[in-house]
């Protein structure tokens, strides 16, 4: 049948299927151990699923209020103030979203206009650039380099001009597992204060930091928080990535614009899960103990691969560990990652795909949000490579 219009001009001509889908699909096809896409292979707390069921049975199955149910927003306000010191008004400054990605898309759409520049640090999580480009903004890139992936703020300064509308930061950082320091945050504040530049701070791994490091969230810095959107995710915190639940914090004037987009993108999000989270979130230990929980997994995985030919600088946060393979092969990381699936039955994520131009530091990302048994099987393969 002839199609009309016969030629579609893609709005995202260079975008294909995400690396997470590609690698997870390949892992399934080859029945490989899947440490590629970031998700736990263990269950969430049954008490949480019970709460969802209970709230469905109670009849909470119709639309939630557009910004989310108040009880949950109130708890998020309390948690944010207790942990980071900034007070967000649940009425006007907190919105529950269908996961971090939707919140990020919404914030970018609410703020970015044609030809606006958005500074991002790459390797950058893959949803940032398409969102910028669909809004006709332009991504400006600062390249982070292996093995430390740290930021030289004097260099960042050179990328800023009157068209800079937004800076996107991500701490703890996916895919590298690095974190921003108090010094980074102070420099970011100095750089953006009074400029009209908006910060979009992707903090979905806020509770997963290791070795005594504390999360340097934007909400610790009133001078940053007053021009920032902060994004967080229940999926990462409560082992429920498939529920697609997250939230956004922002001062009233920014949140007003955010909600204008949110209400027409999703209107509101899953009602019974919001009620469940509004009860579950009262148990502070559930998120306060997450760092220790994942540090055990990181340490276990890193101990198991210590005898391999990969190099390993322990991750500071997130549930990802980078391993370098320079001593093993000169192949491109994308080729090497595919070969590991096909020949060894192990799936990972090649880090170069998170750069807009080829930047191959010969590192692969491994997700350690897995049962010990899965980590053992994966490590056994890694030690054979
Ligand atoms: N955040 C997950 C990761 O980094 C991927 C989520 C997705 O597949 N979009 O692996």
* Beta-strand content estimate: 5-15%
Biggest sheet descriptor: 7 strands, mixed
Q: How helical, in percent, are the residues?
A: 25-40%
**Averaged pLDDT, please?**
96
Main CATH class of the largest domain: Alpha Beta
User: Looking at this structure, what is the CATH superfamily of the largest domain?
Assistant: Type I PLP-dependent aspartate aminotransferase-like (Major domain)
Bound molecules: glutamine
- The assigned structural class equals alpha/beta
Number of helices: 15
Give your account of this protein's structure.
- The structure is a single chain.
- With 385 residues, the chain is α/β, with parallel strands linked by helices.
- It folds into two domains: 123 residues, Alpha-Beta Complex (Aspartate Aminotransferase, domain 1), CATH 3.90.1150.10; 238 residues, Aspartate Aminotransferase, domain 2 (3-Layer(aba) Sandwich).
- Helices cover 39% and strands 15% of the residues.
- It has 15 helices and 13 strands.
- A seven-stranded mixed beta sheet has the order 2-8-7-6-5-3-4, sandwiched between helices. A four-stranded antiparallel beta sheet has the order 9-10-13-12. Strands 1-11 form a two-stranded parallel sheet.
- A hairpin with a 7-residue loop joins strand 9 and strand 10.
- Helix 2 crosses helix 11 and helix 4 runs parallel beside helix 5.
- The mean pLDDT is 96.
- It binds glutamine.
- The site of glutamine (GLN) has 5 residues, from loops.
């Amino acid at each position: 049948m002839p199609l009309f219009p016969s030629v579609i001009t893609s709005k995202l001509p260079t975008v294909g299927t995400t690396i997470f889908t590609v690698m997870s699909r390949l892992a399934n096809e080859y029945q490989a151990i899947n440490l590629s896409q970031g998700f736990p292979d263990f269950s969430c707390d049954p008490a949480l699923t019970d709460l969802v069921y209970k709230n469905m049975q109670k009849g909470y199955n119709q639309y939630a209020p557009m910004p989310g149910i108040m009880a949950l927003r109130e708890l998020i306000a309390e948690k944010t103030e207790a942990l980071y010191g900034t007070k967000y008004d649940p009425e006007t400054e907190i919105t529950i979203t269908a996961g971090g990605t939707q919140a990020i898309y919404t914030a970018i759409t609410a703020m970015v206009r044609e030809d606006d520049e958005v500074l991002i640090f790459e390797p950058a999580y893959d949803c940032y650039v398409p969102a910028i480009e669909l809004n006709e903004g332009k991504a400006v890139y600062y390249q982070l380099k292996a093995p430390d992936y740290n930021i030289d703020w004097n260099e960042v300064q050179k990328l800023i001009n009157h068209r800079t509308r937004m800076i996107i930061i991500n701490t703890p950082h996916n895919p590298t597992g690095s974190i921003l320091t108090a010094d980074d945050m102070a420099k970011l504040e100095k750089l953006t204060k009074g400029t009209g530049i908006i910060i979009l701070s992707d903090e979905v791994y806020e509770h997963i930091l290791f070795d005594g490091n504390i999360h340097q969230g934007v909400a610790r810095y009133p001078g940053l928080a007053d021009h920032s959107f902060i994004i967080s995710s229940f999926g990462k915190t409560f082992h429920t990535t498939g529920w697609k639940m997250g939230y956004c914090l922002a001062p009233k004037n920014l949140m007003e614009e955010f909600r204008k987009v949110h209400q027409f993108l999703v209107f509101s999000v899953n009602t019974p899960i919001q009620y469940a989270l509004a009860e579950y979130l009262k148990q502070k230990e559930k998120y306060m103990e997450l760092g220790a929980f994942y540090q055990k997994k990181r340490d276990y995985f890193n101990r198991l691969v210590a005898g391999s030919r990969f190099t390993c600088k322990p991750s500071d946060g997130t549930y990802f560990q980078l391993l370098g393979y320079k001593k093993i092969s000169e192949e491109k990381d994308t080729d090497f990652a595919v070969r590991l699936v096909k020949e060894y039955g192990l799936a990972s994520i090649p880090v170069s795909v998170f750069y807009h131009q080829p930047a191959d530091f010969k590192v692969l990302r491994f997700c350690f949000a897995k049962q010990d048994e899965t980590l053992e099987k994966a490590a056994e393969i890694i030690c054979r490579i």
